TrEMBL record:
Residues binding Mg(2+) 2, per UniProt: 88, 90-91, 213
This protein's GO CC annotations: plasma membrane
Enzyme Commission code: 3.1.3.7
Amino-acid positions noted as binding Mg(2+) 1 in the UniProt annotation, renumbered to this chain: 68, 88, 90-91, 213
GO biological process: 3'-phosphoadenosine 5'-phosphosulfate metabolic process; phosphatidylinositol phosphate biosynthetic process; sulfate assimilation
CDD domains: CysQ
Protein's UniProt name: 3'(2'),5'-bisphosphate nucleotidase CysQ
Originating species: Dyadobacter koreensis
UniProt KW Cell inner membrane keyword: yes
Amino acid sequence: MHLEIEELLSIARDAGKVVLDVYGDEKQFEEVKFKSDQSPLTLADEASNNLIVERLKTFTPEIPILSEEGRDISYEERKSWEYFWCVDPLDGTKEFINRNGEFTINIALIKNRVPVLGIIYVPVSNVMYYANQETGGWKIDSEGIKSHIKVDKNSIDWVSVGSRSHASDVEKEVLARYPVVKNVAIGSSIKFCLVAEGTAHIYFRHGPTMEWDTAAGQAILTLSGGQMTTLSGEPFLYNKPSLLNGSFICSAQYLTLRD
C-alpha cells in the first residue's frame, strides 16, 4: 500500500498545533481529568485525537483506526484487520503536565500485526521523525532540514535511553549486561527516535505499555535498521486480544535476554 507521506506529516503537525494551543493557554492547561487507569487525560489529548481521527478517515476511509481515546473496540471486531492505524494523540501526558516539552504525536500503520509506517512529531521542538518501508527512516529538524537516519551498529560505548516517569531496578540490572557508558532519561516515544538516529544504542522497558505507545516508535526504529523484540527474542506484534504490551528491548542489533 502506497500512501502519500506528506499528508500524514501534515496531520501530525496540525495535531501538534492543537496540542500547543492547550499547552500555551493556562486556563485550558489546568483542565486535567483522570482515566480509569488513573493516567491523566487533558483537553489536548481529546483535541488531537479528534483531529487525527477525522483526517485519517478522510485520507484512508478504508483503513480502521485504533487510538488511545478509542480503545474500546472489541477483539472480535478488530481481529480480522489486515491494516489499521494505531494512534496515540498525545504520548507523554505526564511530560505535558510537567511542562518539560517531552511529549509527542504518534501515528503508525500496522499491516498483519507489524508496524510498517511510523510518524512521531515533537510539537515543542518542531522535530519530526518518520519511516516507511519504501524510504526508510527520516528526521526533519526544527529548521526544516531533512536527513536520512540509521541506527549506530558500530559503537563500542553505548548510550541507553529510559523513561523519565517509569524507571525500574530491573532495567538497571539488564543494562549492566551491555557496554553502557551513559544513561539518558527522556519522556514519551522520543526514546525510540534516539536509538533510530544513532544518538542512543539501547532502550529496555520493563513493565506494561499499550500498543499505541510503541507502534510508531517501533516502525521508525526497525525501518532505520534497528531491532525491537520481546525479552525472549520473539517478534513484537500488534492487534493482540489484550492491547497491553509486555516488556521489550530495542537496540541497533538483535539482543535476547534468554541468558
